[in-house]
Amino acid sequence: MSLASCSEDSISPDAGGDGDSTTEVPLAQVAKPKPNPWLAQEEYSITHFNSAQTDAFSSAVKDGTFNIDLSKCQMTWSGPVNLMTLASTSPNYMWGMSSDRVSYLDISDGKLERVAEAGLPGITMKTQEQLTRIIADHATYDELSKTVTDILGPVPQMSMANGNYVLCDKDNYAYTNAGQVMARYRLANPNNPKDGIMLDHQIRLTNFTFGSFTLVGATMTYDGHLVVAAQNGLLVLNRALTTIEDSYPLPSDQILTNSICIDENGGVYVASNSRTPGGKGLMQKLICKDGKISTSQADGAWQAYYDGGPQAPCIKLGHGTGSTPTLMGFGQDKDKLVVITDGSKRMKLVAFWRDEIPSDAQQVAGYDKRIAGVHEVTCGLGTSTEWIQSEQSVVVGGYDAFVVNNINVTNQEINDKIIGVIAIGPIVKGPQGAECVRWNTKEKKWESKWTRSDVSSVSMIPAVSIKSEMVFVCGWNDASGWEVTGLDWKSGATRHRSILGKNNRANGAYAIIQYLANGDLLFNSVAGPIRVKY
User: Fold this and answer.
1) 402: closest CA among 438, 454, 352?
2) I need a surface site. Which of 104, 242, 253, 498 has the fewest CB within 10 A?
3) Is 0.70 topped by the overall pTM?
4) Strand, helix or coil at 173?
5) What is the pLDDT of residues 289-310, one digit of tens each?
6) Which of 124, 131, 134, 151 is CA-nearest to residue 77?
7) Rounded to an integer, what distance in angstroms lies between the CA atom of residue 468 and that of residue 60?
8) 512-527 burial by CB neighbour count: b if 16+ within 10 A, else e?
9) C-beta of residue 114 within 8 angstroms of C-beta of residue 96
10) pLDDT one-digit tens code per residue, 138-156
């Protein structure tokens, strides 16, 4: 791996709103979500890093510009989606969670070595040769489509139904799904991971998911129950996966395409989409305690509709939000919110009061009183830009929220999300645009901090370093290929560039960006995790 240069160069953000009516607090000092005692670690033991789904991590990351030779990096092979690598109960090991397998990875002393693996129930593990063919250079979309369908079958995006939302609990059990099967894995010998991984238990949920095709999310409550989200409803299971403790069907006009988040008081936040293009999506807070779900307002549950839109031409699923709900405001913070992007063609950032609505809150004109604020996202793009939409959760640090645009209209018709996510960048022109927005707690409204119309974020989930105050995206540059770009959280200026090259091994394909404790990049590639050392 070569270090090309360490540069002080930065790119200025586009002009944003004033953003100064709320005092700027260092991210290291803002209140954090309460750690979930049933997860293996405070960070990285669940998709989106914590139970509040904030996508915020504590490791520091270097400033500079780095040219990375991926052929010299340690990597493992799995996929074609590797959404996240999970923290285990040991700082020396992580769980590699993929759409085709579960792995156990040794990350001690700068390593990234797979010491054990096991296939998902009913899923054939892809060979290194197959994955190499998927990430090979393809001259045209049709050529890529033929390669991918030859390997993954006639509907490649079906692979996204496996290993999509995952977690590791306090006893080092790793949970994942294969279609409608929920599975729990453990080490055969906790004292020697090289002895292998065992499928500890599995449960097929087909008859209990209200006609859903697949599972779409999972989380662990603060009292130790597994909440599993399917397209048409939620189930509560015990950790051993032997008992379905309760269930809740979504309204018949709604469908869920993203995961859920929870708070320490049993609140479960669910953002579903209308089944009809342009129909209203539904944001709900359910209460789950002792394995039972309540929809009673007396217990704190509520519902509120938000704006939907049409089906996006690529990347994004459904007619509503592309976001897993994210909590904002913790501990003694004044305002407690849950935030999503809506389904409008030019999306809006929507904040909901997650507990009792403050007595001094002013209702946003034309919206449910539960909605605290609505902000029209521009990403610095002109009014002629048809689509500004995201398939990513909102990144939250303090009362700041960061969003990206994942949609670009092209002449290429994209009918499969997996083929599309592999094509966008190298073959099909990708999207641009990012924006950071602040919630003003005094005036109780959103204000734009900064925008970057030139930043590319194709499909990876952004993440923010609390210590370095940098938010990271992954996008495509026609000159240099794939790049992880670090933007200053306060100003939007470019502070970090990891230039990964033009091979699609550097395509993150819906995965989340992670950094390890020593500042190394843990890149969840379409073909398996990679460790990048600076």
Assistant:
1) 438
2) 242
3) yes
4) coil
5) 999 999 999 999 999 999 999 9
6) 131
7) 5
8) bbbbbeeebbbbbbbb
9) yes
10) 999 999 999 999 999 999 9
